[in-house]
Amino acid sequence: MAVAAAAKKFRAPRIAIAGATGAVGHDLLRILTERGFPVGSLKLLASARSAGKTLDFRGETLTIEELTEDSFKDVDIALFSAGGAQSKRFAPAAVDAGALVIDNSSAFRMTDGVPLVVPEVNPDAAFEHKGIIANPNCSTILMNVAVWPIHTKVSPVSRCVVSTYQAASGAGAAAMAELEQQARDWVDGKEKVTQDIFGRQYIWNLFSHNAPVDLETGYNEEETKMVVETKKIFNDPDFRTAVTCVRVPVLRAHCEAVNLAFDEDVPDLEAKARAAFADAPGVRIVDDREANAFPEPLLASNQDDILVGRIRKDPSVRSGSALEFFLAGDQVRKGAATNAVQIAELFLER
Amino acid sequence: MAVAAAAKKFRAPRIAIAGATGAVGHDLLRILTERGFPVGSLKLLASARSAGKTLDFRGETLTIEELTEDSFKDVDIALFSAGGAQSKRFAPAAVDAGALVIDNSSAFRMTDGVPLVVPEVNPDAAFEHKGIIANPNCSTILMNVAVWPIHTKVSPVSRCVVSTYQAASGAGAAAMAELEQQARDWVDGKEKVTQDIFGRQYIWNLFSHNAPVDLETGYNEEETKMVVETKKIFNDPDFRTAVTCVRVPVLRAHCEAVNLAFDEDVPDLEAKARAAFADAPGVRIVDDREANAFPEPLLASNQDDILVGRIRKDPSVRSGSALEFFLAGDQVRKGAATNAVQIAELFLER
């Protein structure tokens, strides 16, 4: 069955969305519409709590059903975005029912036999699936879309050092709402702002990413995802990344300061990097030194392109060369929903 | 005169503050009080606009005078924090009048014969002044206080890669007020928030540092300051820094993600770094992996210590070794006012 499923392409696939009420679920509906995805039928699935509620899709009112093991009869593609626990529990049932699962959680990303796909980087990997394809971590996707053209068209990257500036959206819709509530609390002069989710004041503050930290290495899970997922997506177990993940009080787009080192001294490095970015799918250059106009979260919000700017040669290397740039990308869209829909598009008959 | 001035120490110096009404001026008054600095007399200077206003200092009400070339008679130490143009215009007059100038602006930082001093790093340099001592850029100070103990006690740093997360305060009190106003505007549902200073929405956003960008290199002036000032402070023209400076919607403390590479493979790197930080003046370790508790702007605000955490070995290097950490420091205090007062303290008779 696995091989047959891998080969299968659809004219108008019957879609299910598991986790339809979350931030990513919401955007999946929008993006299917925006991109004119040929949805044969659409089933919205969520927890029992949300079952019975309705959502509009292309002018039709759809009733949300409870996500169960029996949800996937007559489904061709199941887009999962209900968290890792739900994916682990229900994705196998979806595969057994014959659906192709595109999973936005981290549950299966590093599992052997599960392709981890950024369509701008490794679209062919998608076709080696055994029923499940994993959507990478949001920060990984944004970085990979921008680093891949440099790594393949300019010079092989020997080492990548990244610092992230991550939005609240990565922690879900309720986290975004808490950050907004903190603004209202602060304006109201409340002594202590609402902090049920992050356990700290987030407005006027920033903090190391809230993922658990490995007690031995000091790396948090978000950082480790970026390191190991990039190796898998680039199909290069020796690709080297050092990363610091930080949450900043921004609502829905992530930024990353990226430093790429090369073993060779690349002549005209900056010009070559600009040319590679200009040609790269999913990348838009925003880089006006005179106007001090560069990528910003608000410019990237509700966009699918990754914005790159501050493209410049790093003056600090002793040998070889290095490139610096700054990117911004919508974490909910390209970092999650858009990437998942792009993977689904790979399986459309054209 | 220069040599005599350099040697001179004071029991209770007569102080002038040029720029008494700014964010740093305000903190200079607080810090002189908090540290029990033996102020012989205090003269508050500002623009004509502020002359005649009053400020309290140790229970006394002082009237602000207009900053002119004649302001510095009977002044031993003049603390300048009125911007580069005012420093260029009035610091020479202060020196001619016999005052030792400690200048918080960038006007003289890279001038030959003007020491650039971080007391935890190069206190002795202060005594080589010719009337003016420069206070480094805020981001430089925070980085230098933390990097110096590693560079000198652990292993010589071959390359330093930094990404900053800078607060509004670096752009002055009015910039902080605009950011706060934007929160009120957003809560009020205004379509466009107040953006007279930064020319963009800052709340829920971040942007490349607003300093002018060199059209050739792509480095902005804030980044270049960190690169060149560090060489001067460390007295090492070959110290190599690559840096990306970013403004985040935080009010008054800066953060920096720092990556230090070493030529040698340092055994027990993390433990050695922790020991060096623990011994370093002006540094406090905040690094609880289990509780996910690390440096944050709000924890560093109104503190003089630089908080360091996320101390860990960088897994990405091919040869040698590298250390990563994250710091937070109050930009107005240690990044400006406290550092200036600490320089003044070097000139106290004990």
Automatic annotation (TrEMBL), chains A, B:
Residues 14-129 form the Semialdehyde dehydrogenase NAD-binding domain. InterPro entries: Asp_semialdehyde_DH (IPR012080), Asp_semialdehyde_DH_beta (IPR005986), NAD(P)-bd_dom_sf (IPR036291), Semialdehyde_DH_NAD-bd (IPR000534), Semialdhyde_DH_dimer_dom (IPR012280). The active site is at C138, H254. It catalyses: L-aspartate 4-semialdehyde + phosphate + NADP(+) = 4-phospho-L-aspartate + NADPH + H(+). The keyword Oxidoreductase applies. Coiled coil: none annotated. Pathway: Amino-acid biosynthesis; L-methionine biosynthesis via de novo pathway; L-homoserine from L-aspartate: step 2/3; Amino-acid biosynthesis; L-threonine biosynthesis; L-threonine from L-aspartate: step 2/5. GO terms for molecular function: aspartate-semialdehyde dehydrogenase activity; NAD binding; NADP binding; protein dimerization activity. It comes from the Eukaryota. This is aspartate-semialdehyde dehydrogenase.
